[in-house]
Write a structure and sequence with these properties.
CV3147-like, globular, 18 strands, homodimer, 32% helix, 6-stranded mixed β-sheet, CV3147-like fold, alpha+beta, 7-stranded antiparallel β-sheet
Chain lengths: 361, 361
C-alpha cells in the first residue's frame, strides 16, 4: 500500500493518456475531479491485489461513452457515486475496494475521485492494461467474470441496473441507453471478489501509468529528453516520425471512427503512415504495411512536448512520433486475440507482435 | 372478487382488441399464454381496487415493443415471470396483486398468465382504459406516480432495472434497449400502493373488455347482430362504412406508423376516410375533416364478422366499419389531453370530443 496524492494524479493522468492509445477520453476532467476529491477527503490508498482478502468485493467504476462527448459534456462526479451506491444497494453489501476498468484515458484517473470520497482503497490493477472501445474487451472476460450486474447513472439522475446474459450484451444494452442519455454516463461493472482480481486483472498498471507520466513530466528537470525517457520506460518501439497530413473522423454511435495520415520526416522522409482508430488506435500501416496491430498499443506523441495525443484532438500539421508498445501477455493468447485482436475489428490481417513486425534486419 | 376462467379469457381478449384501438399488439399469443396458465394453475381472482388494502403492492406487468414484432417474435411467458421476480428482488418485498398497464391489445390478457402462475389476484383496472403507444401515457402519470423502478426481461435472459427521473425517460431508455433486444420484452413498471390504484387507475376496465368481447362473440347465439350489440355496449358512434383502399405502414423504432385509407360504401358512398396510426389509431378524418381524435378511441371493425382489426394486419379490400368511442374522463382533462391528446402526436388540430364532432344536426 502507498498513498496517492494530488501530484501523483498528474503523473498517473499523463501515463493514462499514453496507455489510452488514442482513446479512453482525455483524462483532463477526470484529473480535476480526482485532485479535488483528494484535496477534500485526503489521499487515496493504492493497494496491490495481494493485499485484498479473497472474499473482498471489488468493483470497477468507469466513465462510458464516446470520447468526443466525454470531453465536451462534463461529469459532475456525482454520477460515479450514484453508480457506486446503486451497486451496493443492488448487491446488498459494501464495496471494499474499487479499480479502474482500464488504466487508459479518463478511466485511469476517475476512480481516484470515488475512492477518495468513499474512503476505500483503489487496486493497482485494471482489466485491459490499456484502453479498449468495448465494455466486454477485458481480461475479466477472458477469465469468465460476468460484467453484470452493471449499474449506470447519468448527470440527470437516471440510474439503472443491467443483468445481461453475457458481457457483449452488456455493451449492447448499456451502449444503447448511453446514446439516449446524451452520449456519456458512469458505470459500476464486473463486481468481483479479491480472489478474482488476483487471477484476472492486469497488475501494477496504475503504478506503471505513473512511471510513464513521470518519464514525460520529470525528464526536463533531469536534463533528459522526455521522449527518450518515455521510450525507455515503456520499452516502446519508435514506429514513425512525421507530420499529420490528414484526419477523417466520424461519430458512429458511441465510437469515434476514422483514419489519420502522417507524412514522414527525418529518416522516414518519403514514407507515409496511416493510423486507423475506433476510439483507440487499432492499426498502424507504414506505406501500406502493418507495423503495429491491436491489441499491441499504438501511441501518438506530440513531437514538441512528448505528450500523447488522443484521436479526437488530432490536428492537421502537428509534428508527431508514433510509438508501439507490447500488449499485456493476456491479450496475446489465442483467447485474448479473439477478444481484442484485429479480426474482432474487421481486419483481414493476422496479429503479429510489434517486436516481430519491426525486427531489425 | 370473481374467478376468471379460460372461457372468460376469450371474451376479454376480444374486448381488449377493441380497446387496443388498432394497437397494443394482437392478443392472440397472450390469450394462449393466459389460457394455458389458467388450465395449469387454476382460475384467476379478478378483484376490484377497493378490495386492496391501502398498503398492498400492485405492479402492472406488460409486453413492450413494436406491435408487428410482438406478433412475430413469440413470448415464452418466462420473460414476464422474470420481470415480476426482478421487481420483487429490487423492492425487497412480495407483490400482492398485478394489473394490466393497458386493457388494450396483448396487455389486456398477458397479466392473467402471471397472476395464475404466481397465484395472486389481478385488479380490474388499468392505466389507460385503452392502448397507447408510449410507456408514460398513463393515468398513473396524471397522478404523478413514477413509472420507475421499471424491470425489464427478454427471452434470452437479459434482465434490467431502470430508475428514471421521470416517466418519459422510462420510455426513452427502455425503448432503446428493447430495440436492441430484438423489438420486444416484458416489463414490470409503476409499482404502486393499493391507495394509489384506487385513486389513479381506470376502474372496471377488464370487466368492460369482457362485456365488449361477449357482445361480439355471443351475439349470434342470441340471434342478434354482433356489430349492433358491440355499438350498444360500447356506446360507440358509427363513423364510417367502407372498403380499405390503401395502407402505408413503416416501422420507426418500436412504432408502426402509417395511414389507412377507406373508400365509403352504403350511405358513405362518395366519401373517403383516412385513419392515422402510431401503433394505435390517433386521428380519423372523413373527407379531410376530423371525426375522431386521440385520446378518444378509434376502432376499425371487419364488417364481415364484427371483429376488430389491428393496424399491422390491415389488408387492402377488406370491408370495414369505423367506430368511435369516448375516452375515459381522465384523458379529457387539460392534463390528460396534454399527455395523450393530438398535440402530443404532432397534430395541429385541437381535441374535440367525438360526441360533439358527430353531433346529429
Amino acid at each position: 500500500m502507498r498513498k496517492i496524492n494530488s501530484k501523483d494524479i498528474d503523473y498517473i493522468a499523463m501515463g493514462s493518456t499514453v496507455l489510452g492509445t488514442g482513446g479512453g477520453g482525455d483524462p483532463y476532467i477526470g484529473k480535476l475531479l480526482a485532485k479535488e476529491a483528494i484535496n477534500t477527503y485526503g489521499e487515496v490508498s493504492l493497494i496491490q491485489a495481494d493485499e485484498l482478502t479473497d472474499d473482498a468485493l471489488v468493483v470497477p467504476i468507469a466513465a462510458f461513452g464516446a470520447p468526443m462527448i466525454l470531453v465536451e459534456k462534463l461529469f459532475s462526479g456525482q454520477e460515479f457515486i450514484k453508480a457506486f451506491e446503486m451497486m451496493e444497494y443492488y448487491l446488498g453489501r459494501k464495496i471494499d475496494a474499487i479499480m479502474p476498468i482500464e488504466a487508459g484515458g479518463l478511466n485511469g484517473v476517475i476512480p481516484f475521485s470515488i475512492a477518495a470520497q468513499k474512503q476505500i482503497p483503489l487496486v493497482d490493477a485494471d482489466g485491459m492494461g490499456r484502453a479498449f472501445p468495448r465494455l466486454e474487451m477485458t481480461t475479466f472476460t477472458l477469465h469468465n467474470i460476468p460484467v453484470s450486474p452493471i449499474t449506470q447513472a447519468d448527470e440527470k439522475g437516471n440510474k439503472n441496473v443491467y443483468h445481461t446474459i453475457d458481457n457483449t450484451w452488456g455493451e449492447t444494452l448499456v451502449g444503447a441507453t448511453t446514446i439516449q442519455m446524451g452520449g456519456s454516463c458512469a458505470l459500476g461493472c464486473y463486481p468481483m471478489s479479491g480472489a478474482q482480481v488476483k487471477k484476472a486483472a492486469v497488475h501494477g498498471i496504475v503504478s506503471y501509468a505513473q512511471t510513464l507520466g513521470e518519464a514525460i513530466l520529470n525528464a526536463k528537470e533531469l536534463n533528459r529528453n522526455p521522449l527518450d525517457t518515455l521510450i525507455e520506460k515503456a520499452t516502446a518501439i519508435k514506429l514513425f516520425t512525421g507530420k499529420i497530413s490528414n484526419v477523417a473522423i466520424k461519430i458512429d454511435g458511441r465510437w469515434n471512427k476514422g483514419v489519420c495520415e502522417i507524412v514522414g520526416l527525418d529518416k522516414f522522409q518519403g514514407s507515409k503512415m496511416e493510423l486507423d482508430f475506433q476510439n483507440e488506435f487499432l492499426m498502424a500501416k507504414k506505406d501500406g504495411k502493418p507495423v503495429a496491430i491491436t491489441p499491441d498499443l499504438i501511441v501518438l506523441i506530440d513531437a514538441e512536448n512528448a505528450k500523447p495525443i488522443t484521436a479526437e484532438t488530432i490536428q492537421y500539421g502537428t509534428r508527431v512520433v508514433v510509438l508501439g508498445m507490447q500488449a499485456n501477455k493476456q491479450w496475446r493468447t489465442p483467447e485474448g486475440l479473439e477478444l481484442g485482436g484485429p479480426k474482432k475489428f474487421g481486419y483481414q490481417e493476422q496479429f503479429i507482435p510489434i517486436e516481430e513486425l519491426n525486427k531489425k534486419e
